[in-house]
Amino acid sequence: MRINSPKLNIMYKACMKASKSLIRDFGEIENLQVSSKGPGDFVSSADKRTEKIIIDELLKAYPDYGVLSEETGKINEKNENNRWIVDPIDGTSNFLNGIPQFAISIGYEEDKEIKTGIIYDPIKNELFFAETGSGAFLNNSRIRVSKKKNLKQSLIGTGGPKSNSKLKDEIYLEFLKVSKSIDIPLRKFGSASLDLASVACGRFDGFWQRELSYWDIAAGIILVKEAGGFTDFLDNDVNETKKRNLVASNSLIHKELLDLIKKKNIEKN
After folding, report:
1. Tens digit of pLDDT for each residue in 62-72?
2. Does the domain formed by 6-143 have CATH 3.30.1330.40?
3. Which of 19, 48, 108, 132 maximizes the CB count within 10 A of its CB?
């Protein structure tokens, strides 16, 4: 595996160590203890166990660094210049239903900018990683975004709203608007980190989704950028404490996709 920098190396080790128990848990889904964390949002014992392994490994190497993670929240809050952004299982609902479409996602943020990211799909054994200025990779191979120039013929991924979303109707209208503007049906796989990885390696030509958490997309942002793609936040949403509204694509269809999504919904029926 082409892992060079110290930070990338410790992120890789954390992923590999955490994935062992995650794969075991995935094979015993029916025995997992699941508790409700809110409407349409579940947390399992596997989430907590996986996150603890990852954070322990990261902080063992860099004990003073901050952490922002899905289950634990914030650690070492005073360190705002160096922190890890962790999602132990991105695609929890898929995981809990035995669907092999989920990933471990870890980003490293320095001075408010994501510098390094890893997304690991333990079932397919696909490791996506990128570091500022070094390119993006899938396992040992360099990856690039697609060269698709025509949005109408592009393959676009997205994700739907949660049941308690206040923007549910608007998001459904947006889905309909984009769907009518392209020839290929939209894809909705339930893991934003893997969707962004798919943009980075050219499987998707673009992706957008509203109301994402920072840990869903931190690693994916650097992957897409280092693979030659573009990312933008909708509605000037740049505060990590809020839900994020993200658009990502290759450079060739980005403006067209962004303009289409930003266009006001006028269809109400």
Report:
1. 999 999 998 88
2. no
3. 108
